[in-house]
């Protein structure tokens, strides 16, 4: 996809598109949340994010999105417990209409890699690392940790494909906001089970609940703000 | 094609010639023939044999336009209930457009629609089946049997034991009304169809029968693995038949472990096993066999 992106840039002079670059920030939520009978307070929630490819088509598999409009080629770690917008990188590309985003959670499987591989910038070599404390209505309490890997299925694929992201980008005076709340990721975790085995790792039901959320109903929300005037 | 014929076609196209379009509703061969277990790309990899007894859809609203002139579309708004197992092997003509411009119509779409009392019976669908579609407002209904000599059902419930299950039944109906657009031939970057001057273009919107066996939600080429075990596992009451009510009770994270599954790319949010079924139903519309209609919109 990077190669095709370069092709797109080469053609910019002919299409009327312009090169742009703008900042990306993340917003999390430190608030405790309810999961079944348990009140969960996280002390650590770091998510690996990227690379990100923003496409002009709603369906955006590698073959249907041959040229990304915008992209973040790097993998970054974002703090899901920070409610303050936190800069994590620059989005680059051309002006145009974005209709979807395709991305990984810090573990990539490019066609040049022999297997899915954590990026050096992924948090502790995982897609998501967690630690926290849970207490239930019966007064039971425990500490837990989590190391979650969200892995592309096959070489050349990204783990989240064609996820909604709608914006027409026409200026550098933009800020992309990635909003991800821990409750959206952990909402289907059965903390009764985690109580019995408080280290969430691959193969656990809790791990599967988190990976399912991250690829469906709990994926980040992508929005754009226009700077110097609001939007 | 010889150069002179090509030149003649080009001249005819430039002179504003016209032609016709015939639209054949077609069923993927998995619908009449089922799916076989095995290790091939098209096989069910976890050993189940799948046979469809019924497969009905509400299809129609075929439309096309040219990118250069989107204000002059051609549309046949008719939708009807069709029994895909009763289609002729080459498909059933469901729409015909005469006297249309002889050139490429690069934007093509159609709908998997919702049945209503106003929806006609398209090809002598059994009256009971037709009424079921209309009364429930479904866009899709199928009955299937899954068999596996050493099969088991392992309910996705903590602590539940696996039980032997060699024959399993499905009778699933749902509303998954979806618009499919930007259809293109298999392995082609050019969309739609080309109408020859004085001739007839024939196209085949193709309804697939295997997407709920996929371990991902394909958006381009069908790079996927077909698995049926989840359908058998979701039989919560152990009666040998999984119902849509049971699917609605099973969290997606319980039915579809990752790996092998990846559930991203759905038109709808996926929370339950039923959502996954519906999400896959909203991908069934293909074109001329395995060509994709990648723009899918919930209706």
Shape designation of chain B: elongated
Give the class of chain A from helix and strand content and strand pairing.
alpha+beta
Low-confidence stretches of chain B: 1-15
The percent of residues in helical segments of chain A reads: 10-25%
Q: Identify the overall geometry of chain A.
A: globular
Total E-strand runs of chain A: 16
What string, H for helix and E for strand, traces the elements of chain A in order? HHEEEEEEEEEEEEEEHHEHE
Major beta sheet, strand line-up of chain A: 13-8-4-5-7-1-14-16
Per DSSP, the total helix count of chain B is 7
Decide which structural class fits the backbone of chain B. Answer: alpha+beta
The largest pleated sheet of chain B is described as: 8 strands, mixed
Distance between the termini of chain B: 42 Å
- The secondary-structure element order of chain B is HEHEEEEEHEEEEEEEEHEHHHEEE
Q: Which chain pair shows the most residues in contact?
A: A-B, 32 and 30 residues
The major sheet of chain A is characterized as:
8 strands, mixed
In total, the number of domains of chain B comes to 1
What would the average pLDDT of chain A be, to the nearest integer? 90
Structurally, the number of domains of chain A stands at 1
Q: Portion of residues in helices of chain B? A: 10-25%
In whole angstroms, the N-to-C terminal distance of chain A is 31 Å
- The number of strands of chain B is 18
Protein topology:
The complex is a heterodimer of chains A (231) and B (299).
Chain A: H1 2-10, H2 12-15, E1 19-27, E2 33-35, E3 38-49, E4 52-55, E5 70-72, E6 76-79, E7 86-94, E8 96-103, E9 107-108, E10 117-118, E11 128-136, E12 141-148, E13 160-169, E14 174-179, H3 182-186, H4 191-196, E15 199-200, H5 205-215, E16 221-226
Parallel strand pairs in A: 1-14, 12-15
Antiparallel strand pairs in A: 1-7, 2-3, 3-6, 3-11, 4-5, 4-8, 5-7, 8-13, 9-10, 11-12, 14-16
Chain B: H1 3-14, E1 18-27, H2 30-33, E2 49-66, E3 69-83, E4 92-101, E5 104-105, E6 107-112, H3 127-136, E7 140-147, E8 152-153, E9 163-164, E10 167-174, E11 178-181, E12 193-194, E13 200-203, E14 205-207, H4 229-233, E15 241-242, H5 244-249, H6 252-255, H7 273-281, E16 285-287, E17 291-292, E18 295-298
């Amino acid at each position: 996809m990077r190669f095709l992106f370069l092709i797109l840039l080469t053609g910019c002079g002919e299409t009327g598109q312009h090169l742009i670059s703008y900042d990306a920030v993340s917003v999390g939520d430190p608030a405790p949340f309810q999961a079944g009978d348990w009140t969960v307070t996280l002390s650590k929630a770091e998510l690996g994010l990227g690379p990100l490819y923003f496409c002009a088509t709603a369906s955006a598999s590698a073959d249907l999105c041959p040229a990304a409009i915008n992209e973040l080629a790097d993998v970054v770690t974002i703090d899901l417990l920070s409610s303050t917008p936190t800069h994590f990188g620059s989005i680059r590309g051309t002006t145009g209409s974005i209709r979807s985003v395709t991305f990984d959670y810090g573990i990539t499987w490019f066609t040049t890699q022999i297997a899915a591989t954590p990026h050096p910038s992924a948090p502790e070599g995982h897609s998501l690392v967690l630690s926290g404390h849970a207490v239930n209505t019966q007064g039971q309490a425990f500490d837990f940790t989590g190391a979650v890997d969200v892995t592309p299925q096959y070489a050349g694929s990204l783990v989240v494909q064609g996820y909604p992201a709608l914006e027409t980008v026409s200026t550098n005076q933009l800020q992309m906001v990635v909003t991800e709340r821990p409750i959206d990721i952990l909402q289907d975790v059965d903390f009764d089970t985690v109580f019995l085995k408080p280290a969430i790792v691959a193969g656990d039901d809790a791990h599967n609940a988190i990976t399912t959320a991250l690829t469906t109903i709990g994926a980040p929300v992508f929005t754009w703000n226009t700077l110097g005037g609001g939007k | 094609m010889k150069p002179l014929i090509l030149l003649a076609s080009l001249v005819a196209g430039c002179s504003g010639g016209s032609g016709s379009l015939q639209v054949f509703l077609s069923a993927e061969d998995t619908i009449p023939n089922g799916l076989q277990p095995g290790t091939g790309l098209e096989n069910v990899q976890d050993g189940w044999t799948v046979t469809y007894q019924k497969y009905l859809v509400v299809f129609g609203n075929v439309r096309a336009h040219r990118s250069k002139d989107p204000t002059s579309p051609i549309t046949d708004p008719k939708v009807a209930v069709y029994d895909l197992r009763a289609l002729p092997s080459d498909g059933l003509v469901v729409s015909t457009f005469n006297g249309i411009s002889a050139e490429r119509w690069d934007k093509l779409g159609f709908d998997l629609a919702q049945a209503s009392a106003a929806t006609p019976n398209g090809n002598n669908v059994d009256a009971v089946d037709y009424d079921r579609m209309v009364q429930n407002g479904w866009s899709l209904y199928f009955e299937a049997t899954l068999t596996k000599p050493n099969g088991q059902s392992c309910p996705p419930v903590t602590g539940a034991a696996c039980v032997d299950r060699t024959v399993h039944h499905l009778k699933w109906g749902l509303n998954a009304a979806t618009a499919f657009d930007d259809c293109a031939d298999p392995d082609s970057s050019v969309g739609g169809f080309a109408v020859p001057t004085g001739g007839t273009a024939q196209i085949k919107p193709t309804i697939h029968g295997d997407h709920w066996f996929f371990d991902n939600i394909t958006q381009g080429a069908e790079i996927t693995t077909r698995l049926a075990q989840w359908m058998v596992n979701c039989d919560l009451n152990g009666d040998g038949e999984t119902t849509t009510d049971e699917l609605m009770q099973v969290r997606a994270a319980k039915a579809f472990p990752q790996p092998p599954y990846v559930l991203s790319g759905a038109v709808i949010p996926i929370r339950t096993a039923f959502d996954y079924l519906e999400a896959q139903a909203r991908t069934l519309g293909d074109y001329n066999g395995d060509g994709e209609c990648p723009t899918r919109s919930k209706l």
